[in-house]
Amino acid sequence: MEIPLWLALLAVGVLGVKLIRPPWWLVALLLLGGYLIADTPLSPAIDTAINN
User: Fold this and answer.
1) HEC readout, the chain
2) Whole-structure pTM over 0.85, yes or no?
3) Half-sphere exposure of 6 (CA within 13 A, CB side)
4) What's the CA gap between 19 and 1, in Å, rounded?
5) Nearest Cα to 28, choosing from 14, 18, 7?
């Protein structure tokens, strides 16, 4: 089963806001920043840092 990236980001954002109740602008900034960083040359370095 494949889930579109935008749908996964939307679900994570909604759940994060309901559970932690941060400001909407902070959630939007984090999700947009993560989405934009995923297509850069930094993504392998971030993936390595997270998986270790």
Assistant:
1) CCCCHHHHHHHHHHHHHHHHCCCHHHHHHHHHHHHHHCCCCCHHHHHHHHHC
2) no
3) 0
4) 26
5) 14
Buried b (16+ CB within 10 A) or exposed e, 14-39: eeeeeeeeeeeeebeeebeeeeeeee
- Each residue's pLDDT, cut to its tens digit, for the chain (52 residues) gives 798 888 988 898 788 889 999 888 887 898 788 888 888 888 888 788 878 7
d(CA 21, CA 3): 25
Residue with tokens 């934009």: 36
Alpha-carbon span 15 to 10, nearest angstrom: 9
